[in-house]
Design a protein that fits this description.
There is one protein chain. This protein is mainly α and 263 residues long. Among the domains are: 86 residues, no CATH class; 77 residues, no CATH class. Strands 3-4-7 form a three-stranded antiparallel β-sheet. The longest helix has 115 residues. The N terminus and C terminus are likely disordered.
Length: 263
């Protein structure tokens, strides 16, 4: 009698079942196959199943390596993000401190501005009060000035026996060089005299310049018709015609023709 042992497929399935149970006990992965999947696996050749498992294992290892690489990259990125977050938090704290300082300065500036506005309002009120007092004092001074003027006029009328009525006496007028004129007209007379002095100075300057011109041309003079002719005054016109130079009498007449006879 020949005893037939279990086939290779049955051995593989038994080993796989034990391995899955062991992994399940260890808390590993749990694989559950449906009845159709179990029939397909049971119908497969053991070598085919081993090849498929090897392929799945190799693919899983590649994916695991890629996942580890991605995990390392993500860890590096996470570290960078944490560093950036720390820097941003530090900058935020600095900015918050600056904002608090600016808010404090703004509050101080606002308080100082309010104090200045109050002081300005008080000074404005005081200035208005002083301006009113000055206006009153000006009116009082003018009234006292006019009253003093009329007092002096009444005393002069009493002592010298003259009539102070009419419009002969006016506080807006004054005696200037023997004439009674308005105070504004006196200033006008002074301006006219200043202008007259400036005109006299200008004529004197012109006379000196003409005299210097005459003296300069004397060095280049030659005789013509009994008089000295100054070559510096001779020349030609635009048509090319020549004209004789000026003589000393002619230059003298030219000089004295510009000098006013009665300054």
């Amino acid at each position: 009698m020949v005893v037939v042992g279990p086939s290779g497929k049955e051995v593989f399935l038994e080993l796989r079942r034990k391995k899955l149970e062991e992994e399940k006990r260890k808390g590993g992965i749990e694989v559950s196959l449906s009845s159709k999947e179990a029939e397909i696996v049971s119908a497969m050749h053991p070598k085919t199943v081993l090849y498929a498992l090897n392929e799945f294992h190799a693919r899983a290892m590649r994916e695991l390596a890629e996942a580890n690489n991605r995990r390392q990259e993500v860890s590096v990125q996470l570290g960078n993000v944490k560093n950036e977050r720390s820097q941003l938090l530090a900058e935020r704290n600095v900015l918050k401190a600056r904002c608090r300082d600016f808010e404090k300065k703004d509050e101080d500036s606002q308080a100082a501005l309010e104090r200045l506005e109050e002081e300005l309002a008080a000074e404005k009120k005081e200035s208005t009060k002083k301006a009113g007092q000055i206006y009153q004092l000006e009116g009082y001074v003018m009234s006292q000035h006019e009253e003093g003027f009329y007092k002096a006029m009444r005393q002069a009328s009493h002592y010298f026996n003259f009539d102070m009525g009419g419009e002969r006496f006016d506080i807006d007028k004054d005696v200037y060089e023997g004439s009674v004129i308005t105070v504004g007209n006196r200033n006008l007379v002074l301006l006219l005299r200043i202008e007259l002095l400036l005109c006299i100075f200008w004529f004197y300057k012109l006379f000196v310049e003409l005299w210097l011109f005459t003296f300069w041309t004397c060095s280049n003079a030659h005789c013509e018709g009994g008089h000295k002719v100054y070559s510096a005054t001779s020349g030609r016109d635009v048509l090319g015609n020549s004209w004789p130079g000026c003589t000393r009498p002619l230059l003298a007449r030219m000089v004295f023709s510009f000098v006013p006879s009665d300054p």
